[in-house]
Amino acid sequence: MGYMGTAILNISPYAFSAVGIAVAIGVSVLGASWGIYITGSSLIGAAIKAPRITSKNLISIIFCEAVAIYGVIVAIILQTKLQSVEQAYTAESMRGGYAVFASGLIVGFANLACGICVGIIGSSCALSDAQNSTLFVKILVIEIFGSALGLFGVIVGIIMSSQVTWTTS
């Protein structure tokens, strides 16, 4: 076995679990903040031409914020999967640690992509609403479909972590 394989097998499964949980919440919040940045800057710019769009287009900011909430929910779910065990380096514990790690990665990066997607669509929603108010609902429907990407990541993460068990003896 190479150096990397040896190193990976000698890292505690709890360390992998902790990194997975941190990635789930951290990268999800990064995706939400990036989406809010994209949407908010366009919303403020477009509100100069049409101040009426400001309150109506805050729904795009809420969609971006939901991405961070997805990460928090999954991090809480993953945290409840951890248990204290005497022997951390059993096959079952290693599998559980890797499953929590992979679940956190999937949720975090799915929500990163979702946040950017919702931010870009929210930006175009604000800009187009400033030009033509009849486009708001049509683009909002597209934004809802973009928001579903984060939910898919959450579902996959929950499914991956549902069978996590730790050796208790």
Automatic annotation (TrEMBL):
It is found in: Membrane. The chain crosses the membrane at residues 14-37, 58-78, 98-123, 135-160. Pfam families: ATP-synt_C. It comes from the Eukaryota. One of its GO terms (molecular function) is proton-transporting ATPase activity, rotational mechanism. InterPro entries: ATPase_proteolipid_c-like_dom (IPR002379), ATPase_proteolipid_csu (IPR000245), F/V-ATP_Csub_sf (IPR035921). CDD domains: ATP-synt_Vo_c_ATP6F_rpt1, ATP-synt_Vo_c_ATP6F_rpt2. One of its GO terms (cellular component) is proton-transporting V-type ATPase, V0 domain. Keywords: Hydrogen ion transport, Ion transport, Membrane, Transmembrane, Transmembrane helix, Transport. It is a multi-pass membrane protein. Residues 20-78, 101-160 form the V-ATPase proteolipid subunit C-like domain. The keyword Membrane applies. V-ATPase is a heteromultimeric enzyme composed of a peripheral catalytic V1 complex attached to an integral membrane V0 proton pore complex. Belongs to the V-ATPase proteolipid subunit family. Proton-conducting pore forming subunit of the membrane integral V0 complex of vacuolar ATPase. V-ATPase is responsible for acidifying a variety of intracellular compartments in eukaryotic cells. This is V-ATPase proteolipid subunit C-like domain-containing protein.
